[in-house]
Design a protein that fits this description.
Blueprint: E1 2-10, H1 16-32, E2 36-52, E3 55-67, H2 71-81, E4 85-92, H3 102-126
Antiparallel strand pairs: 1-3, 1-4, 2-3
Length: about 170
């Protein structure tokens, strides 16, 4: 049996009971497949790097467990079938699970808190709202109804037609 880490993102629009039940279902699936839970971490709702299924936030959960390799396809199938789970990733955990202490958890949490605080300060200093624009985008109705007419380009005086002799060149 090897150590694995699985991280998944749940739809934040679901109620707390649904979120808890989904996490419990994953834990139960691992234990019934012959695995042992080493650590479970609920990271809470975080902003996504890019929209997924129209969502900009997700509820993150991470589990470190020891299980046989036959557990992974069962776990993957569960992730794909459950609608509230919008993304998932399971990898081999190569670190020492015993070394994961409360201090490392609090360091991770404080890192995210510092990032959020710094982002909020940057936005407040620029005077931007959450969209990241200094002004709202222009709409078609913001444009003038009659754009100013452009002047036609000036042409050089046209040459008079030649009289038939080409020796003037």
């Amino acid at each position: 049996m090897r150590n694995y880490e699985t991280t998944f993102i749940l739809n934040p629009q679901a109620d707390d009971a649904t979120l808890d039940q989904q996490i419990k279902n994953v834990l139960e699936l691992i234990t019934t497949s012959g695995g042992n839970i080493i650590r479970e971490e609920r990271m809470g709702t975080r902003r996504l790097a890019y929209p997924i299924q129209g969502l900009t936030q997700g509820h993150y959960a991470s589990i470190i467990f020891k299980a046989p390799a036959s557990t992974l396809p069962v776990l993957d199938r569960h992730y794909r079938l459950e609608e509230p789970i919008i993304r998932h990733l399971t990898i081999v955990f190569e670190g020492d699970p015993v070394a994961l202490t409360e201090s490392s958890r609090s360091a991770t949490a404080s890192f995210f808190e510092k990032e959020e605080r710094a982002r909020a300060e940057r936005m407040a200093a620029r005077g931007d709202d959450d969209r990241g624009f200094s002004r709202p985008p222009r709409r078609h109705y913001d444009r003038p109804a009659n754009p100013p007419a452009q002047a036609e380009p000036t042409r050089d005086k046209e040459r008079p037609a030649s009289s038939g002799s080409d020796d003037q060149l």
